Amino acid sequence: MKNRIILHYGELTLKGCNRQTFVKKLRINVRHKVKALNLNWDVKSIHDRMFIDIPEDFSGDIDFIAAKLAEVPGVAWLSRVYWFSAKKYHIFEGKPDLQEAENLIENLANDNYKEGKSFAVRVKRSDKRFQLSSRDLEIQLATVILKNTEWKNVDLKHADQYFYVDISSRGMAIHTNRIQAIGGLPVSSTGRIMCLLSGGFDSPIAAYLTAKRGCNVDFIHFTASNLQSSKLEEYKVSKIAKRISEFAGKVRLFLVPYTHFDLALMDQKLEYDLILFRRFMARVAENLALQVHAQCLVTGDNLGQVASQTMENIVSMTKSVDMPILRPLLTYNKGEIVEISRELDLFDICVEPYKDCCALISNSPKTKSLHEKLNNIENAAFDDYDELVKETLKEMQVVAYQFGNKIDYVWN
Description:
38% of the residues lie in helices and 21% in strands. With 412 residues, the chain is of the alpha/beta class.
């Protein structure tokens, strides 16, 4: 018997002829995640699952490692199991000797006993060479628990504690827990996006949701001035990017000062200053996205949440660029967004003090705008818009993370 972590694909099993491509990407991502945890363990894939054998001499926290693997997009659920190999335990030869499995079930039942609660044994027998039916094995193991532990109540439909037994062609796995993972598709299976990252709740969650659907994620963030290189990692948005990288793998955070935009508008007192600034950010982000081969922009816009996110202003921002803008949170309630941030351990970072650049630009933003009117204002206010974008990007700083670890990265 050995310890093993088994990861199940879920949605990937529906991919037909493309399934192996998705599985290969997931396996690569899981390997990188394991490596980021400073572990040199192999990741193997069979049928509808992957597994990682845990060395016998490992003394670390296996449950912690399992929880971190649950953060990898594409993994539907996983469990820490006790593995009995078919070859070693002769599981498919005549009537199998299940004494060691029964001893394990008894120990697990004692360890997980809850006074007054109910239990059930669930057996999944995918290889019918195993002599006992699923139902017979469930009865046999449940009897062991009832005879040798304090468990007294069996509930086959809504038990408080389940004991799982999975029998496949390679052996038998026994476990007590199924850890719900984030599901979705493996990162790098559906494209690359450039996310406009602020210091609030919305844009980090928007980035997470696109990573969960298989996108590689890069960030662009607009700052009031250049930051000291020594302080980049302590910057709030850097900590957000670092946390998102634990789900998204390698992410790059491009920090861009908007001083050139400020200087261009100095003393002009334009009444549409906020939406003009958002159109400027979209154009800079589009320019950078093309350089890193991103196919879409992503924002944390939430319809009607603030003045800049009215339908009219969203349309005006969208029309300012040629690249599609995805808005995963458009119809979410704020409470739903905050709850996701709690689930992802982002809440404490997102509530840290921070002055949003949009608030610095305008105190009383317009709620309605027209693309054509804004175009006329921009033509009159800016001598050379393309040059403004280029000069802005010349002062860009970059910091990169991979699965929660800062990595060396040089922007050419």
